[in-house]
């Protein structure tokens, strides 16, 4: 049966449309075009410098560089808007291959979608990514730790008011203390959404946060 479906609907590279003979999302030639970060040797990476101005962060990891015309944008676009949920699994496999965690966190969580958005999309594009990493790294995950309670976007700024405003977007139904979280998102642009989640997590005592994103803008 699989043989027949493979013949009728062969797996194709989402970039160049060439047929590929495994479960990958892109062919080897296109894979070589991806701009991976390669930050392993750096003590301070650009993501840490960016986020450190918004909230206290321990370790920061990013798999790819986001480029407006690049392949990374295309991959994440398909993951989020073209019902290609399985791309999350592939990105997690690349992450395990490319990124070595400096310190092992206690719990993996991702930025939640508002329930209305989740219903519309049918899935949270970060869930399969997080679950695959959890399995590979042997670290538990929790998809329900953070809940998004409002629909609007977080606002920029470091002052107390905007921080308060941003944390009101998320809620923690059952807080944990003494936990090192790895907070996961797809693209880090301004970092404001992450900051909103981070300050919410840091309200409970002795928590700390590291960050992992699929791509840094
Ligand atoms: Zn290709």
Automatic annotation (TrEMBL):
Q: Which organism is it from?
A: Elizabethkingia argenteiflava
> Which residues span the membrane?
none
Pfam families per UniProt? DZR_2
Tell me which family the UniProt entry assigns to this protein. Answer: Belongs to the ComF/GntX family.
InterPro entries xrefs: ComF/GntX_DNA_util-trans, DZR_2, PRTase-like, PRTase_dom
* Record protein name field: ComF family protein
- Residues forming the Double zinc ribbon domain are 5-36
